[in-house]
Model the fold of this input.
Amino acid sequence: MPTLHVNGIDLHYEDQGPRDAPALVLSHSLFFDHRMFQHQALELGQRLRVVRYDDRDQGRSGRSALASVDMDTLADDAAALIEALGLQGCHFAGNSMGGFVALRLAARRPELLRGCIVMGSSGEAEHRLDEFGSLVEAIRTEGTEPFIDSLMYIMFGDSFVADPARAQEREFWRRHMMGLGPDIARAAHGVIHRAGVLDELGDCPVPLLVIAGEQDHAYEVELSRHIAAAAPRAELVVVPHAGHSVALEQPGVVNARIEAFVRDTAGR
Done:
């Protein structure tokens, strides 16, 4: 189980693909771990160096003493991981929480990135703080299991939930989220109490690919439009039949977009 001790924490990571290929670092959503990018590792890992990691206090990574796992700390962790693996000049992609990390890296550490992919995310402070805040506090008390139907609705689009061919995959993630327990509330608190970063993107030199799922129940497409409008070098793609976990739900479409973006910006 490969781990790196960076920024005071042990981070679990998976490193696949040709070592001389362009590097793509993937940062997962809240309630998930590096496995949410299995489709990307399997396909893109044939032609790109794909590095997936678990954020602190989640997955197989170390647990900290933080009462609220804030996005600035996660961005510092990601930067330290990139530097420790010698991946300066990589492409960084994040879904939801991973997108919050990606935007902070693009704005604050542009020298580390050739391109940034932001999926199912927002550049603003949480717009549903009351609703999500109540859910987080309930999870802190009761764990995730009583709220699994709400979590599945938030994290996945209608098409994915209704597709009989994806039943096994849905059940895997349902069981995963049910088993997270009350401790995940620390990470969730940091997610929903984040500061906005749109005002940091105005002079961001890093090209951005902003991908939104048209069925996103957590962060509607308009929030992705705001990211694309705030950054000078941004492209918005809206993926049909996809919800909040767009990279997992529509991997073929997303993989093709990511690979084209990496190819077009590799020489930046």
The CA atoms of residues 17 and 45 lie 5 Å apart. The chain is about 40% helix and 20% strand.
